[in-house]
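User: Need the bound-state model for zinc ion:
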Amino acid sequence: MAIKLLIDFSGKGHYYIVAYPFFVHLSFCSAQKWAVLPKKHSGAELDKPEPSVFVSLNFMQINLSQVRFGLYARKSSVQEDRQALSIDSQLDEGIKGAKIEGLNFTKKYTDSASAHTINNRANFNKLIGDLQSGTINGIWVWKADRLARNPIEGGQIIHLLQTRVIKVIKTPFAQYLPDDNMIGLFIEFGMANQYSLDLSKNVKRGNAKKIQMGGSCGQAPQGYLNNREKKTVEPDPERFDPVRKMWDLYLTGGYSLNEICKIASDKWGFRTRRKRNIGGVKMRPSSLHCIFTNPFYYGKVRCKEHENMGIHQPMISKREFLAVQKLLIPSGKGYSTPYCFPFTNLVKCGECGAAITAEKKVKYACPKCRKQCSAKNPLPCPRCKKTIPEEVIQSGNWYTYYRCTKKKRRCSQKYITERKLEDQFIQVLDELEIDPRFEEISIGWLKILHKDNAAHNEHLLNKFQQNYKKQYRRLESLLDLRLDEELDAETFKAKEKTIIGERDYWKEQLNSLEKNGDERFQEIEKEFTFLEGISREFEKGTINHKKHVLLKIGSNLLLKDRKLALEVKPYLKMILRLKNTGVPPLEPPSTFNTRRQISGLKQKHPEWWAQLDKIYHYFMENAPFMIE
Ligand SMILES: [Zn+2]
Ligand SMILES: [Zn+2]
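Assistant: Bound-state model below.
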């Protein structure tokens, strides 16, 4: 069904509207052009106009050459403007039209923004201002929807036209005059507005549904790729592992964002994903900061007000994510705080609580009078006043010392050399260090404990998985009901909330069980390996390694009267206690018969077994780096 409307301007031209339920065509043409138009437009109705309504109007003559036109062009990157010509092409069309019809353009205005929201376009506002001040009094625009897609600004234009502030609005196919019937323009702006509303609603609805089904919207972050066909997010085979390694490095606490970027770019050759003209570059600390604060990496998807656990493969666990957030907060000084000294930022003064700072000094003897000097910078000799040559200072005895910054209040603490501070810390490490035999036997028995537990967990895992999948199916059928409008919005919302709650509950259960699996067990092995030969490794380690060890071993490091005090982390205390119980002269069996073997161990070495069991459960229930 089509409504056809022909408006005849007293023989001077025809205003012809064909309206279908989904489509409105609006055109203005002079009597001479009438014959040409059908070729340009595929609408066959234009050939033999049979109007349903016929309106005759007075055609107001206007001298177009006297109008000061403002040429307006707009195109935004949003979906609603996809069909529009580019800004340059719109301007070209205007200039072409101006030549043919002899129009004068006074000013040019362009906006690369959406016209859906009010007051979103700087140059549109300038256009209105110039109209009101009289600088221009006409508008040339490629299509009316370039001017407005919202009723406020559309109404503003119509009002300016009706009050004759605007003498004429011209488009390639239409012209709107103050005495015209405004229906045409109202329809144009109304259509533009509705189109934009529909689109944004559809996009919103689409996103909400996607999020609800565990999908994600927008561009996949580094380490992931958008699968356009399946509309899912998948690990980027090239970057997933390197990005995961960046998390690992940061979790050690020994690397700044800057250092990680350097390692990634220079050692691994990491480059960001290339997309059109952007990407394909080295990782920058600010981008890395974005990665480290994006919950997407542990599985959460967010889009405006919607959020959910996604179905994509998480890169890290939520615990790891939270641990990184903790590490990120104190470095409010930017991304590049370099770690020049292992103990700074970690040790505090035991007397006044202020931070400990480090400085380098050099000891040397004056080449002339042999006076012993100590300084940071070369100075003339205090005794013979001879200037000390640079080589003497360079080859002098350099050392680092730590001292209280005394920034909080008066403090009587004296400095301590790095050597002495390190020696004290190494004493702590010596105590914690384990030998290979202890490691082998402990891990051997822990494996048996783990085997026993894993068998026990298997059937739970199956049950949780089934429950989790069931919630998915429930959610899907609920959505179908809603889409078929068999459910009202309120009931749907309430039911959806319950199901999502249940689903997330099972997901959490599943995650905690899965984490109790082999991955978590490897953590125990890692910790034991870490403690083997730890003193030696610390001594010859780099600053980053030292910092890493310090962070892992203890917290609350205090320096008072040149004595270092620290709290050893709970899991290390447990291993230490196990070590102090003495290694049982019992080789771990190589075949598994866990129940019997465990009860055997329990009987013969109850203390050792109890301590081992504690360690096992501690690791299974906590991530070590979460321990304060
Ligand atoms: Zn102090
Ligand atoms: Zn001297």
